[in-house]
Amino acid sequence: MQTERGWRWDDPTSFATATLAPRANGDAEAERRASAESAVHDFVATAAVATDLVALCEALATAARRASGEDGVAVVLESGEPGPASGASVIPIRVGEGSRSWGRLELDLRGSARPAVVTRRLESLATLAAIAIERIRRDRRGGPSRARDSSIHDAGLLGTVVPFALSQARRHKEPLSILFLAIDRLRGVRELMGPDEADRVVGRVGVGIAGLLRSSDLVGRLDDDRLMAVLPRSELHDARRVGEKLCRGIAAAEDLLGIPMEASLSIGVASFPASGTTLGELLDAAEAALDEARTLGPGRVVAAPPVGIARD
Predict the structure, then answer these.
(1) What contacts 248, CB < 8 A, 6 or more positions away?
(2) Is 209 strand, coil or helix?
(3) CA-CA distances (angstroms) from residue 46 to 55, 60, 74, 175, 253?
(4) SS3 2
(5) Are 114 and 56 in contact (CB under 8 A)?
(6) Domain range spanning residue 79?
(7) Is residue 209 domain-resident?
(8) Are 242 and 213 in contact (CB under 8 A)?
(9) Helices (H) and strands (E) in the chain, counts
């Protein structure tokens, strides 16, 4: 399995520079720490549904101020524009090394050292913004897009949020569970009714899944027939019960497949730290559990065994 992935869409279209002026932040130190913890999570919801670049940049600047605890933050969207002023600290707005940079976060941190945790938060925010910008530009060009609801996130968004959520779980000594969900019989829908209808099925099922989860949980599409759910502060046994609830809920929903046959899911569950302590271990455990669930037949949920315990 490829556990470290990069997702991006190429967009040759450039656009003008827009700079947002810094805004004062009078939060007390304790409130600032709490605000910094939630800045990335709050920005996820904004980035997922953003359709306007100016509004997105305003939200990014606000989140960056919260994450860094600094007032002097500017968001610059650029294409071949001059670089930042001397002494400014820069975070590129892009999805991974080597991909197109859509601009930069500029922070006036001269004379102060930025903690590593702050840098990671700012990089996560910049990546989330880049994914949203790429989606907005693609949608404006009328490019291909999958059936999508504001509750269903792109794979690239998950690729940024999951490592951050794992780091937060590790830091606060809290559990974190992930579910890999496969839509059973989707191949038959694709062969019978075509890829567009199969895409719509994934969108409808994804919306149904999101409606059965907590507001703090995230749902995203991994690939053609698989989705992923991220459940903060959920232990393995709790996540398995959630998976069983999702199987029942999707089976009870009407006409999700677009044909007279009930929809069903196969689900693999893994949890930090029970199933793995690194992102790669967690994803591998969830995928192996999903493979076993698919082997057992439609509508099955399999939880990954605890680390060090082999499956019978």
Answers:
(1) none
(2) helix
(3) 9, 9, 18, 25, 29
(4) coil
(5) no
(6) 18-140
(7) yes
(8) yes
(9) 8, 10
Q: Is the pTM of this model over 0.90?
A: no
On whether both 192 and 101 belong to a single domain, the answer is no
**Token pair of 15, please?**
């656009």
Whichever domain contains 287, its CATH number is 3.30.70.270
Residue with tokens 């969108």: 203
Single-letter amino acid code for the residue at 146? R
Q: Where are the beta strands (DSSP E) in 154-258?
A: 176-183, 218-221, 226-232
What's the per-residue H, E or C state across 282-306? Answer: HHHHHHHHHHHHHHHCCCCEEECCC
| Helical ranges in 141-185 per DSSP H | 155-172
Return the amino acid letter for 258: G
CA distance 78 to 66: 23
Structure tokens of 289? 């559990």
Give, for all 312 residues of the chain, the pLDDT tens digit.
Answer: 333 232 222 222 222 223 333 334 444 666 666 667 677 777 877 777 788 888 999 999 988 888 887 777 888 887 555 555 555 678 888 876 667 788 888 887 555 667 777 887 888 888 888 878 877 887 776 644 444 444 566 666 677 778 878 888 888 899 999 999 998 877 766 666 666 776 777 778 888 888 888 877 888 888 767 899 999 899 999 999 999 999 999 888 876 655 556 778 999 999 999 999 998 999 999 999 999 999 998 899 999 998 865 555
Take residue 254 and report the two structure tokens written for it: 């009407």
